[in-house]
């Protein structure tokens, strides 16, 4: 089976036209790969364009304040990617004089760059013959070759890398890598792929043995923990509120939030008691639960159950921030969405 040639012809007819494919600039390619980690192309594209417009060179990104980068990243999730992006930009700009390493071995040493990202940059920007192996590649190869190994196991990843290495052509590794990624994203999809239009229908073991919906096999499952968050939105008569920055190595590190009651047990928070204990100096007029139905926000390892409480005070919040200035700070998307939805209510006391 000449998989490489079939993939090439399929790709030339069906490829997605994406801006980072129109360049060999390693900065632009790296930026796209970091943004597209854990993010679909349709969601990541506007962020890629915004970052490239705001920070057209690695020096611009390296010199930017981290808060600005986190605010621009807002909504993409997995915020450690943005922090790593900034760290690597600084290293490349200030230690490598703006030049990215031109090979897989050195690229993988940079923060936030793993096997897949290093292979993508090395092959696309520098034509190094190194295959990418991600979820799309696992799916395509496991189905075509009927591989039933557990893809969550480290040994299986090596098995797929070795197979991909035998398939990638020496003369155009970039095209092969982009072709197999697009083939998995467009044709050999996770659910209900259109096998009748697949160029590998005769060779595909999964299709021939009726295992398309069973492959690839992934045995391990991430255990998701429940977490309960009550955000306290203090607002004074000047429309000022209190915010704080999350500094611990936890979810949303270095993003901003309202003061929060954070717990892992499903027990009702005694808001009045907590305010009397922790915020005794604030003269509370009234407390309003803004969302009687909790907001459920799902992360990779946690399911967040969220309530927002509006707490009006007659005091002047001397350390407060004007509500209209909140857009200058980077918030987790769930808090950002709340601010957008309830600004009218909070500033004018009318329902949104």
Short description:
The protein is an alpha+beta fold and 352 residues long. The protein folds into 2 domains: 3-133 and 154-191, Endonuclease III, domain 1 (Orthogonal Bundle), CATH 1.10.340.30; 225-348, Nucleoside Triphosphate Pyrophosphohydrolase (Alpha-Beta Complex), CATH 3.90.79.10. It contains 14 helices and 9 strands.
Give keywords.
single chain; 352 residues; alpha+beta; Endonuclease III, domain 1; Nucleoside Triphosphate Pyrophosphohydrolase; 2 domains; 5-stranded mixed beta sheet; 9 strands; 43% helix; Adenine DNA glycosylase; MutY_C
How would you explain this protein's 3D organization?
- This protein is of the alpha+beta class and 352 residues long.
- It folds into 2 domains: 3-133 and 154-191, Endonuclease III, domain 1 (Orthogonal Bundle); 225-348, Nucleoside Triphosphate Pyrophosphohydrolase (Alpha-Beta Complex).
- It is 43% helix and 13% strand.
- It is built from 14 helices and 9 strands.
- It has helices spanning 3-14, 26-36, 41-54, 58-62, 66-73, 80-95, 104-107, 115-126, 135-145, 154-167, 173-187, 205-208, 271-278, 333-348; strands spanning 225-235, 240-241, 244-245, 256-257, 260-263, 284-289, 295-298, 302-313, 321-322.
- Strands 1, 5, 6, 7 and 8 form a 5-stranded mixed sheet that branches.
- A hairpin with a 3-residue loop joins strand 7 (295-298) and strand 8 (302-313).
- The protein is elongated.
- It starts with a helix and ends with a helix.
- The mean pLDDT is 90.
- Its EC number is 3.2.2.31.
- Adenine glycosylase active on G-A mispairs. MutY also corrects error-prone DNA synthesis past GO lesions which are due to the oxidatively damaged form of guanine: 7,8-dihydro-8-oxoguanine (8-oxo-dGTP).
